[in-house]
Amino acid sequence: MVDALPDLLFRPDDPAREALRHRAQDLAASIDAARAAAPVDWTGPTLLLADIDPLLAFGRHTYLDDLWTMIGSANAVAADGWIELTLEDVQRLDPAAIVVVESGVAATSALDPATAPWSALDVRAVRSGRLRVVRHPDALRPSAGVVAVIDLLRQAAGGFAESAP
């Protein structure tokens, strides 16, 4: 899609087309470099959430699942698409880690994973403290920010790997 955008948005004689073509090539190269990077050491099943009221998880074949599995980690949700979960579902899944992915411009999240709805559950993520918030303005949508989102996901997974027994 990135490669096709200049031709879709501009006429062949428009100078902006060539400028966008160069930007698209740079972005494609950045995405390729992120994909080629070594997988992270964290492979524990991780619950990826977009919202906590209700609990809305990224299932298989969603944008964030694609990024999470691309870096070498595993999604705790086996179903396809967006999945609304109950706390009982989280207990049953027993994720080894929980990542809440937020979009926005604030530097920090208002969510404290340690006091979130799942904080009283007896699941591996809570027992081990593997609870993170990943926040980026473009975190919830495929965009030119994808490389930065991948880097933030890598950081979260790297922190989980360091805390693994």
Overall description:
It is a single chain. With 165 residues, this protein is of the alpha/beta class. It is built from six helices and six strands. Strands 1, 2, 3, 4, 5 and 6 form a six-stranded mixed β-sheet that branches. A hairpin with a 2-residue loop joins β1 (45-52) and β2. α2 (15-36) packs parallel to α6 (146-163). The longest helix is centred in the first third of the chain and has 22 residues, at 15-36. The radius of gyration is 18 Å and the shape is elongated. The mean pLDDT is 88.
| Poorly predicted spans | none
Please count the helical segments. 6
Q: Measured on Cα atoms, how large is the radius of gyration?
A: 18 Å
Approximate strand percentage: 15-25%
Helix/strand order: HHEEHEEHEHEH
Total beta strand runs: 6
Q: Could you give the distance between the termini?
A: 41 Å
Mean pLDDT: 88
User: Which structural class best describes the helix and strand composition?
Assistant: alpha/beta
Could you describe the largest sheet, including whether it forms a barrel?
A: 6 strands, mixed
The shape, in one word, is: elongated
Classify the helix fraction into a percent range: 25-40%
